[in-house]
Amino acid sequence: MLADSAQTISTPSIAYHALLPIFIVLGAALLGVLVEAVVPRPQRFNTQVFVTLAGLIAALVTVAVLHGTHVATPSPVGTDSPFAGSLAIDGTGLFLQGTILALAIMAALLIAERSVDVGSAIVASAASVVGSPTDREHSRTQRVQTEVFPLMLFAVSGMLVFPVSNNLLLMFVALEVLSLPLYLMAGLARRRRLLSQEAALKYFLLGAFASAFFLYGLALLYGYANSVDLSAIFTATKTSTKSDLLLYLGLALLLVGLLFKASIAPFHAWTPDVYQGAPTPVSAFMASCTKVASFGAILRVLYVAFAGTNWNWRPIIWAVAIASMVVGAIFGLTQTDIKRILAYSSIAHAGFILVGLVVISQDASASVMFYVLTYGFTTLAAFGLLTLVRDADGEATHLSQWSGIARKSPMVAGLMTLLLLSMAGIPLTAGFTGKFFVFKAAWHSAGPLVVMALLFSAVAAFYYLRIVVMMYFADPPENAPTVAIPGWTSSVALTVGAVVTVLLGVFPQPIIDLATKAAGSLIG
Amino acid sequence: MSNAHNVALPILLAIPLVGSLVVFALREAQAKLAKQLTLLISLIVLVYTAVVGFSFDTSAHADRFQFMGSWTWIKAFGVHLAFGVDGIAMVLVGLSVVLVPTVILASWNSFDSKSGAEEETSPSGRQRSTKNFMGLILLLEFFMIGVFVAMDVFLFYVFFEAMLVPMYFIIGSFGGPRRQYAAVKFFLYSLVGGLVMLASVIGLYVSTGSRTFAITDLIGQVPDNATQKWLFIGFFIAFAIKAPLVPVHTWLPDAGAEAPAGGAALLVGVLDKVGTFGFLRYCLPLFPDASRWAAPLVLILSVIGVLYAAFLAIGQRDMKRLVSYTSVAHFGFIGLGIFAFTTQGNSGAVLYMVNHGLSTGAVFIVVGLLIARGKSRNVADYGGAAKVTPLLAGLFLFAGLSALALPGLSTFVSEFLVLVGTFTRYKALAIFAATGIVLAAIYVLYLYQRVFQGTVNEKVTKFRDLNVREVFAVAPLLALIVFLGIYPKPVLNVINPAVKATLSDVHKTDPAPELGPVAGGQR
């Protein structure tokens, strides 16, 4: 086989234009690395912010221009080209890429916030030992580990590839490209550095483990289908004479890797610790963008490779969906730290989103895409708000510290209430529209699961309400935290998050149309 | 779905919505302006509703649903902003807009920092924002009207759930000492019911395959008996919690006791009517077979509610809890009237909803005025107050008598109709329920006796009698109760066609008198 292709060597034709958003983000990331090397420290932060935002915005515009594109690239030249069609830039992919980029822009704005803390939420110098004289000296200055911006761009580039990979090997590469920077970013908190480093290590170890599972599953599926191409796997499920055990195990192990990234129970254990330890803007980035990318990848794997199999994998999704809802809703009740509550909320929401994945239909995939979008904006803004309430040790995220905050800052309390009501799924907010869309799509074939999801929404609503109760109905504590006035970057991100939350609750039609049209690309 | 674009109801909705936004936008220092503005807006809504209401066609050939207007909202889900009223919705909208101004008047000084606060709440003596209270009341009015005029199941659900939010803040921010607990309990109970209903709403859409949520297109579209039952259960649980029907009533005494009196008047007077309204508008027409299937259970629960809640009311020491329990008892009567499936029973039940709203609203407001003077909800802290505040005592007695359905007052008419309507089909149940009237006399008169008669409690001696504003808050309600007691015809004229249409949806006709007693009544 190798010898054959050596004779008829020819370059595959690549649809470069369709990959432009990915190239732009990667280019910006490389530029960011250069900026670290050549731009003097005082100008570095602003330069990095500029490069990051410019790159992300340019990529988003490109995605918008590309809408309607439907290409699989590289186009097959030789019959055996193993990477032919390994990237599918189609409606679904572009919708998800656009969502990731829009959320990444908001996350970048949050990371760029410098007026609420000395320097920023990012550590001054990550390499210095915690508590050492250098560390103490640096943390008082405006110095910031600005590598966080190129790291973020690398992660975004991986996220952009993740949901458009039609090839498991490429998907694995994307998984690693998006994960490695995230491990680092989780350890960059300026305050409570040990907690942050612990979170990073946990995330790295568990993440590496999950990646290994993914790789193992990939190998087994290759053994089954003789290919790592999703559509080839699909063909193999119809025709292959090999033992089905390879297929079952392969898919199961593959799913472990994917479910881990989407923080779905029982692979969720890292989520609360990492969300709590990571710098809050980075938690926001992880909670929104990673989730969108992971669900995009799950969508593609299930729809392209396993949609039409006569073998029924749906019980697995039922099981993990229920597990996620149970863990997210029940364990969330006992939390007292708002960041951890948001983490458990994200686990519960992952369960709700999975409800849309037990059905294979255009409506269902559109509803999943719509849900991750609404959830992304809402949760990102919620994390953003957390950065504003502070005491001497940094962010005040303990529930009791938020009591009576409404009297000090009606604005923060009002926004937070809006976002929490959206997460609880109260009508006229984006969260309700998303839930309704998903549950409507799933009702016919998974009625009992929908009912369960609704009941667990009610359970989860309890801890959202608890925060609202604290903010409005309780008296402030003795040493109440202060509410910082955000700079323009955070203000923009928070405003956009809140406005999207309301708009998608009241006028969701255009985005629903967009998602439904985009979802058509996955249905044969 | 009709293509009518009548804007009468959208305008009705827009007035309180815009009003609430304006009031919220005011500054804290402009509390006085906020109060006046809110009162003005609520009066405009009242007058506007009266104008709309008088043009409601009650003639024999009139449409069942009137003032229909429909605009596409979310095309992908087949959701319309569809509005319209039948006779039942019309009178309930009327009830809502009558109660709101009285609540505003009664709460005029309740949240001023100086004095007049209903109760000592927290030791820190926190300031409460009158402006926010007024804004919330208007927002609530918007949702209350919306829930009655929605002609699209999805839109109804949106109003049904969103309505919780302002009420949650009214209880939680302006309520009594255990307001946090009560607010969360209220919210969660209603939310659980609402989410179960959401499952049924989605199921209704999917199973009928009609790609629309318009009520007029969905009636009679759920043929399959098993599906009907499942969907019915979803709606029923939500409405039973809202109504509230025993055994899911336990949130009401807490919410009613902790809410500020004005909020409690709206909560019990109007919000709970959404539950019984839901039975009539959604459960019966959409799932007629399932409704008939569930009727025996509902009737029995209703009778249990009538008796059980009345006994609990007699034993209460907290005045607001007492009034809340009386409401649970009254909802038993309404449930009885609805599920007896007779014209008299149904008309009586709808009239009961209106009368109970007026009567309980008045009772809650009067109790609130009393509590504002005594700073306590405990009955034992009062005694002999009639000698000090004769006017308050008089109005209290009047409102109380309306709650026990004294003949000549409107509540008597409705209670009588319900019992007659039930009797023609279910004799035993009617007899049991009728004993509830005796129990009502006990809890009302026993409360009056402990609070207003006997030796004068020394705390009571410093009480000030009602001023003109306070009298004006209650008087219109009492006047309406008397008027409807003597001459209920105008309201019944509006209600009856809608009730007949609803009953024909359930395929029920009144039992013919010549058949004589129909034991069990399964005909």
Brief overview:
Chain A has 21 helices and 5 strands. By secondary structure, chain A is mostly helical.
Give a verbal description of the structure.
The complex is a heterodimer of chains A (524) and B (523). Chain A is mainly α and 524 residues long. Chain A is built from 21 helices and 5 strands. Chain A has helices at 2-7, 16-38, 41-66, 91-111, 133-139, 148-161, 168-186, 193-225, 230-239, 244-261, 270-277, 280-305, 314-333, 338-355, 362-386, 405-408, 410-424, 430-443, 447-473, 488-506, 509-519; strands spanning 71-73, 87-89, 389-391, 394-395, 482-483. Chain A has a 3-stranded antiparallel β-sheet, with no helix packed on it. In chain A, a hairpin with a 2-residue loop joins strand 3 (389-391) and strand 4. In chain A, helix 8 crosses helix 9 and helix 15 (362-386) runs antiparallel to helix 18. In chain A, 59% of the residues are buried. Chain B has 523 residues and is mostly helical. Classes of the chains: A mainly alpha (524), B mainly alpha (523). At the A-B interface, helix 18, helix 19 and helix 21 of A face helix 5, helix 6 and helix 7 of B.
Mean pLDDT of chain A: 90
**Helicity of chain A, as a percent range:** 55-70%
Largest sheet of chain A: 3 strands, antiparallel
Instruction: Compute the number of strand runs of chain A.
Output: 5
| SSE-based structural type of chain A | mainly alpha
The end-to-end span of chain A amounts to 31 Å
Using only CA atoms, what is the Rg of chain B? 22 Å
What's the order of the H and E elements of chain A? HHHEEHHHHHHHHHHHHEEHHHHEHH
Instruction: Detail the poorly predicted runs of chain B.
Output: 120-125, 514-523
Helix content of chain B: 55-70%
Gyration radius of chain A (Cα, Å) is 23 Å
User: Stretches of chain A where pLDDT falls below 50 for ≥5 residues?
Assistant: none
Integer average pLDDT of chain B: 88
**Number of helices in the DSSP assignment of chain A:** 21
